[in-house]
Amino acid sequence: MSCEPEIAQAVRERGRRLTIQRAKILSALRHASDHQSAEQILERVRDNDPHADISLSTVYRTLETSTDLHLTSELRGASGISVYEWNDPDTTHHHLECRGCGATEEVDLSSLQIAEAEIRERAGFTADIRHLAIPGRCADCGPDAAG
Amino acid sequence: MSCEPEIAQAVRERGRRLTIQRAKILSALRHASDHQSAEQILERVRDNDPHADISLSTVYRTLETSTDLHLTSELRGASGISVYEWNDPDTTHHHLECRGCGATEEVDLSSLQIAEAEIRERAGFTADIRHLAIPGRCADCGPDAAG
DNA sequence: AATGCTGCTGCGAAGATTTGCAGGAGGCGA
DNA sequence: TCGCCTCCTGCAAATCTTCGCAGCAGCATT
After folding, report:
1. Is the pTM here over 0.85, yes or no?
2. Averaged over B23-50, what is the pLDDT?
């Protein structure tokens, strides 16, 4: 995989060690087309390399670390299962989660950059609004009565 | 508690049954000054009424239901423990979660209403942006280098 | 290439949340 | 007020995620 040096650099640049486990986990997520659960990522690692024997704990810890490093994003949706995705630095998008049917769709929202500025100004807080899970109801389900 | 009839009405109005458990759980959360974990809510219920014998499952299920009903909000923060709070219909606020020290602060953000409109227009999705958990770094911890 | 510091991993257990099932109770209609 | 239909609850097990600890392995330095 040609992007491994890139991952290696990104990890080391930020003062963390590049271990075999991290390389494989991040590479697997990097090449996934969409968000993946911890278990799915582990499956992918094993598919890529049947010799790989990585524990699920390490997958969780790697994902936590790489999210701190802004390499990946974690989404704790309503489903109860966290999913993770690789961060494309050039693209931000947000996840709309329908409470009716559970479907998710992605959307790019320029107005959230305004919110980042507002937060910095009002609270002195540097917000990282790149991957939000936004609840609501999709067009098919229609707005609900409550609220 | 004078607000119990109000809770009762809110639950029944939305086509759900008002059970003793729901009344006690929602009343406990309603009178809490800030967000509470499921376990904390159960403790409060027991403090209010030592005879109350409610299971933790019921607390979780009640909170899920009341969140669907927009009576409460659930926040799945980075801590790994979900917290819940009563929805004041007149106030919306969002939670800023510092990745450095773990502190959370609340902020009112008018710009997110713009985002709601943008989402409706672009995706036909009715977003419910009332209680978002927004990650970032607080003023004390300062912006980090990565990203 | 060898050494040492310290972060990282695997394992197992603990903690948090969800789920299946059988029985109990809320609220509508008679 | 009585009965019935469902929804709701409690329990226990399953599932998802985190944590503590002892040993291994990056990588900076020699």
Report:
1. yes
2. 95
Reading the block at residue A74, the tokens are 């974690």
CA A10, A13, A15, A21: dihedral to nearest 10 degrees?
30
Judged by a CB distance cut-off of 8 A, whether residue A20 touches chain B is no
Q: Does B14 touch chain A (CB under 8 A)?
A: yes
Residue A19 identity: T
Q: What is the dihedral of CA A90, A38, B119, B130, to 10 degrees?
A: -120
Q: From B115, which residue of chain A is nearest by alpha-carbon distance?
A: A111
> What are the phi and psi torsion angles at A56 (to 5°)?
-65, -35
**Nearest-angstrom CA–CA distance, B68 and B123:** 21
Residue A1 predicted with pLDDT over 70: no
- Residue B79, min C-alpha distance to chain A (Å): 11
- pLDDT at A76 exceeding the cut of 80: yes
DSSP output for A75-123: EE-TTS-EEEEE--TT---EEEEETTT--EEEE--THHHHHHHHHHHHH
**pLDDT for position A120:** 92
Tokens standing for B67?
A: 């969140």
Tell me the C-alpha distance between B138 and A12, whole Å.
Answer: 25
Residues 74-103 of B with CB under 7 A from strand D: 80
Chain A, window 23-62: residues with a beta carbon less than 8 angstroms from a chain B beta carbon: none
Residue A57, CB, less than 7 Å from strand C?
yes
